[in-house]
Amino acid sequence: xxxxxxxxxxxxxxxxxxxxxxxxxxxxxxxxxxxxxxxxxxxxxxxxxxxxxxxxxxxxxxxxxxxxxxxxxxxxxxxxxxxxxxxxxxxxxxxxxxxxxxxxxxxxxxxxxxxxxxxxxxxxxxxxxxxxxxxxxxxxxxxxxxxxxxxxxxxxxxxxxxxxxxxxxxxxxxxxxxxxxxxxxxxxxxxxxxxxxxxxxxxxxxxxxxxxxxxxxxxxxxxxxxxxxxxxxxxxxxxxxxxxxxxxxxxxxxxxxxxxxxxxxxxxxxxxxxxxxxxxxxxxxxxxx
Length: 289
Known about the structure:
By secondary structure, the protein is of the alpha+beta class. It is about 20% helix and about 45% strand. Strand 13 and strand 14 (about 205-210) form a beta hairpin. The longest helix is centred in the first third of the chain and has 13 residues, at about 80-90. The N and C termini lie close together (about 5 Å).
């Protein structure tokens, strides 16, 4: 709902299959109603999106990012959303190519580099490895990369029932009251990926970058999405802590795009975490409040 009742300008953006409606509220003249957000995000009756990103003024950064999920709830952080809003702020002249912005999870540093957007996520917290809970027959792992994530290692991610298992764990009593996002991870051979998709793995210091496939059931969207930036980062962190991969980790998303995760460690402590990938503008328009 807009105070003036005029149509609201928006930009539809996409990053690795996650799509968002981006709204500039730097003048603070737009009131965003969660019920209206649900209508806007409806893929049959609205614009269609995983959520709405709102730019608002900040007293200690270039801007503040609000993240409103498709169900109307507000999220602390969204990795792919952060990459979209970074590109938006740069293209609209709100911020320089190197920027800082505020989220409910903390301050995010971002950089736009020749079509790639790299963000530094907040330092991961609440790491728990090898958890056993009643709602899951196998061990799982937990980490907060701005929002909470459960991580399960599977043999074949493409045949995993992500929605059924993900929904059950998302609402598990072990993760209440906030709930959790749920990620399913398969570690794959980079040489196989080259043959099947055609891209070359990046090699650092004669050690080939590790690839993992990740599928995510997202809290707030209440379904599987084509990608999740904080989920990809969470999965890469867990696999690194378990000694299964090393940084940089390339994540193959459900949508087929690839994200690169850079992890800096001090022993078992993750000190800095970066997420890098493409983002793009899909179209611009106006919508009734």
